[in-house]
Design goal:
- This protein is an alpha/beta fold.
- The protein folds into two domains: 343 residues, TIM Barrel (Alpha-Beta Barrel); 318 residues, TIM Barrel (Alpha-Beta Barrel), CATH 3.20.20.210.
- The chain is 43% helix and 12% strand.
- It has 28 helices and 24 strands.
- The strands form seven sheets. Strands 1-14-13-12-11-10-8-2 form an eight-stranded parallel sheet.
- β12, α11 and β13 form a beta-alpha-beta unit.
- α1 packs antiparallel against α2, α6 packs parallel to α8 and α12 crosses α14.
- The longest helix has 25 residues.
- The protein is globular, with a radius of gyration of 26 Å.
């Protein structure tokens, strides 16, 4: 029996990689410093797992930005617009240019498109393919990192993204071909990579094939059969670990069981039922090892040892203990580093902490379960089992989890609670008469840059180095400066800038009952961007108003309308570590009622435009289409519960970013938001087509400024995007805005970009007036 970790967090326990990366991008750190930090983080992870007793330690799971982008460099799939950078700059700087764009005196290129990694809050860089796409072994990163670990006497299991999944995750940039047809050109490069790993001494290789958790075509399945058949033929002594996660194999199971691989990984956290499907399958061969993904890689609750041991014993009785591996369900990339760092009982009480396990603790759980299954009778192991049982027992009985009033309120919900008073066209006329906005109204998505100074105020307040009164005065000054800037450049609907907020979900988690907050529970969202999901452990309620004070203050400063800014219930749910003892739909409705109270209070305070962001609605979609309807029904209902308590004159906005809406546009429409803003700049408005084809009836703000790239879009770029949008949508329904919030940007580039945005909108209005 082996223990198998599919991947480990890479940003550093205290975000060390983030800090050095951002300094490097600004020219404040050298390439040597950046690379050295990467080496330190990798070695620390490898040693932690080695010392804990993990048998199959992953390598090539580390990344300076994104593992799919790593594969793009490995396979040499460099889009044409980066060729000059490829010729002149280092591979690392080429890599960052592809991830973030590059704008200087010599180069001005946009970044690659970014989207969600399956149904997680992690984002990957989308590969780009042309009909005559050429591949080469451009980067030896997987081989170099295996050798790097070996130099420290640590033999690892390289993790490699399958060429089939890689192609399916990408996008055809030309018409007339199917990206999976590129497999024959990619396979020689892939085999060269595998040969290099074998020559370096690798005996086990984890091939990630998460596309097997999706509804794929027969053609895709044939491509998978071809890949693994040729792998087995070319590398007969190599032990291939076929790894999929996030859902069942489903319709792909029959194909999977026929593949000539050494071990088959099952995500038994997301799909426990597939274990019986595998064990009972007529074509399951007992010579195949089963890697049982029993440790939840995506959530922070302790594993139930007794339940897990029972599952392992069940498998052992059918195929033998030598054919069983114990594993994390997926990479621990989605888990925080170390629970031992959490020492603040004010935000994370011991009563809640006792139920948790972060990445380091999950590694220990994996090893402990192996010891329990294999008959270790030591006092240390017995004590761990006793503590585990005690934690699960107290969780079932805990009074801090259950709130009878909250449960009763959910049970009393009716259909009327999720409907506005009038249909959209009626509301639209009322709102246009009320707001009197110009054509192509301009706004932003909510947040403005948070400087080190602003962040230091929160830090000093927490440390009690700054009084609450002094802090509030500083926030007032920052809000007023933000309002005055927006008025100066001519934005039409303003925002207060959210300078008082740390994160769009964590901020609400701090204010709502049923949540706890960690100090170091960071997980990577994309690149250097890390989030600290709140821990949703109990029934949710809103003890008092959360945003009304600062929104009302901002509105008092201006004659223009200031948006109230809220995070929606689905996004709060998706971007939290959610309790696992209750249906997610029930928890989401609890959050929706809390947000509804806030929306109503904002309206009563005189806020006439309220934005309820739902960037995670697409992310929450089950990977299998057969389960979509159930999820979408309660997700849409939850949003409407949150937003339907206001009068028709109050304009409800929502925002969604980095999502493909093609398959769910009907449900997006059912949200019935008066205005929806979406990310479209990187796709050059391609994401807008689905709204056009569906004849989306409500107002829409297609993003014209990519805020995830440190470059200023030109006036001409924004105008071209608006012209394209105007050919697709009714002019009366178009808003002008950035792709997303501006929190991570610097003020100089933000000011320049927004000035161009406003100027472009004015140009479009001028053209419209001339046309009439």
């Amino acid at each position: 029996m082996k223990t198998n970790v599919l991947g480990y967090p890479r940003i550093g326990a205290k975000r060390e990689l983030k800090k050095v990366s951002e300094r490097y991008w600004k020219g404040a750190a050298t390439k040597t410093e950046l690379v050295e930090m990467g080496k330190q983080l990798k070695l620390s992870n490898w040693r932690l797992m080695q010392q804990a007793g993990i048998d199959l330690i992953p390598s090539n799971d580390f990344s300076f930005y994104d593992q799919v982008l790593d594969a793009t460099l490995t396979y040499g799939c460099i889009p044409a617009r980066y060729q000059k950078i490829k010729e002149k700059e280092s591979k690392l700087d080429l890599y960052f240019a592809m991830a973030r764009g590059l704008q200087n005196n010599e180069f001005d290129v946009t970044a690659m498109e970014m989207t969600k990694w399956f149904d997680t809050n992690y984002h990957y860089l989308v590969p780009e393919f042309t009909a005559n796409q050429k591949f080469e072994l451009f980067s030896l990163k997987p081989i170099n990192e295996f050798k790097e670990a070996l130099a420290h006497n640590i033999t690892t299991k390289p993790v490699v993204l399958s060429p089939v999944t890689y192609l399916l995750l990408g996008k055809e940039k030309e018409e007339g071909f199917n990206k999976i047809d590129l497999l024959d050109d990619l396979l020689p490069v892939f085999y060269k990579l595998i040969e290099g790993l074998v020559d370096a001494g690798a005996t086990h290789i984890q091939i990630d094939e998460p596309c097997l958790a999706l509804d794929i075509t027969d053609k895709d399945r044939e491509a998978i059969k071809k890949l693994y058949k040729e792998l087995a033929s070319k590398f007969s002594s190599l032990k291939i670990i076929l790894t999929s996660y996030f859902d069942c194999y489903g319709d792909n199971l029959e194909t999977v069981l026929q593949l000539p691989v050494h071990a088959l990984h099952l995500d038994l956290v997301r799909c426990s039922l597939q274990l019986d499907d595998v064990l009972d399958a007529a074509n399951f061969k007992n010579d195949k090892i089963l890697s049982l993904g029993l440790i939840d890689g995506r959530n922070i609750w302790k594993t139930n040892f007794e339940d897990t041991i029972a599952t392992v014993k069940k498998v052992e009785s059918k195929i033998g203990i030598d054919k069983v591996w114990l594993a994390t369900s997926c990479s621990l990339l989605h888990s925080p580093y170390d629970l031992d760092l959490e020492q603040n009982e004010e935000t994370l009480p011991a009563s809640v902490k006792q139920w948790l396990a972060f990445a380091k603790q999950k590694v220990d759980e994996l090893v402990t379960i192996k010891k329990l299954v294999t008959g270790d009778t030591s006092k240390e192991v017995a004590a761990k089992l006793l503590n585990n049982n005690r934690a699960h027992s107290t969780k079932k009985e805990s009074s801090v989890i259950h709130n009878a009033a909250v449960k009763a309120r959910v049970s009393l919900l009716t259909a009327n609670d999720s409907e506005r008073n009038a249909e959209f066209l009626t509301r639209q006329k009322i709102q246009k008469d009320q707001l009197k906005l110009p054509a192509y109204p301009t706004t932003t998505i909510g947040s403005f840059p948070q400087t080190k100074e602003v962040r230091s105020w929160r830090s000093k307040l927490k440390k009690k180095e700054l009084s609450l009164d002094a802090y509030n005065e500083l926030i007032k000054q920052e809000i007023e400066e933000t309002i005055r800037f927006q008025e100066k450049i001519g934005l039409d609907v303003l925002v207060h800038g959210e300078c008082e907020r740390n994160d769009m979900v964590e901020y609400f988690g701090e204010k709502l009952e049923g949540f706890a907050i960690s100090s170091f529970g960071w997980v990577q969202s994309y690149g250097s961007r890390a989030v600290k999901p709140p821990i949703l452990f109990g029934d949710v309620s809103r003890p008092s108003a959360i945003t009304v004070k600062w929104s009302a203050y901002a509105q008092s400063l201006s004659s223009k309308f200031v948006k109230g800014m809220l995070t929606g219930p689905i996004t709060i749910l998706q971007w939290s570590f959610v309790r696992n003892d209750q249906a997610r739909s029930t928890t989401c409705k609890q959050i929706a009622l809390a947000i509804r109270d806030e929306v109503v209070d904002l309206e009563q305070a005189g806020i006439q435009v309220i934005q309820v962001d739902e960037p995670a609605i697409r992310e929450g979609l089950p990977l299998r289409k057969e389960y979509w309807s159930t999820y979408l029904n309660w997700a849409v209902e939850s949003f409407k519960i949150a937003t339907s308590g206001v009068a028709d004159k109050t304009q409800i906005h929502t925002h969604m970013c980095y999502s493909e809406f093609n398959d769910i546009i009907e449900h997006i429409t059912s949200l019935d938001a008066d205005v929806i803003t979406i990310e479209t700049s990187r796709s050059k408005m391609d994401l807008l087509n689905v709204f056009v084809d569906f004849k989306y009836p409500n107002e829409i703000g297609p993003g014209v400024y990519d805020i995830h790239s440190p470059r200023v879009p030109t006036l001409l770029e924004i105008e071209e995007l608006l012209v394209k949008a105007s050919k697709l949508l009714p002019t009366d329904n178009i808003w002008v805005n950035p792709d997303c919030g501006l929190k991570t940007r610097d003020w100089p580039e933000t000011k320049a970009a927004l000035e161009n945005l406003v100027a472009a909108a004015k140009t479009m209005r001028s053209k419209l007036e001339k046309a009439y």
